Amino acid sequence: MLVVRWSDGGGRTRTLLFEPSDHELGRNTPYFAALAAKTPKLLQRVMSTEHAAVPDQLRAAGIDPTDVDYLAFDGSVVIGPGVALLATPGHVLGNQTLVLHTDTGIWASSENAIATECLTPEHSRIPGVAKWARTWQQEVILNANTLETTAQQYNSMVIEKTIVDRAQADPRFLQFFPSSELTAHMGNPGTRPTFTHRAITHHTARHAA
User: Fold this and answer.
1) Has residue 204 got a pLDDT over 70?
2) The dihedral sign for the CA sequence 126, 89, 94, 61
3) CB–CB of 196/89 below 8 Å?
4) Which of 21, 44, 64, 85 is the most exposed place for a label (fewest CB within 10 A)?
């Protein structure tokens, strides 16, 4: 999950949780339940890691769960200084992108792509990604599990790509943070991402010019 905090006009601290993952409920969704049914229990423990529950993670960050003000809104909405939710349909019904104006510029986060390099696939070293983008003239590479809305998702990702700034660590890539970021794993050889943000921390949210 991503946690964003800011002060409203009255000086009150507001807190947004974006895509907090509840693994106990998530494993019961049809997609993950079907995968689990095909995977031996021992292999499940090797292939995935269960982190602490959302309330425990909040407390570890010094945030009381009762202080959370926002989880999501319908459509596109500005909810605080430099904090907005942008409607980016395609990946799922009602899909939204978190947009932040921080001390390093504009960031976006969503489930539309599983790796930052999917927005600049020409720089990817994952086997096949750059070649696929070049061969089919794909500007972005989707997290494409909803085929009936692929065109919408493609357009949404182009919007995300357009509004964010370049990553300071490597300007070939963008300040796009996948809400389920691809990371290297010994069980998935050949899929090590070229670039990752991993954890990101900012201390200033400000108004866009």
Assistant:
1) no
2) positive
3) no
4) 64
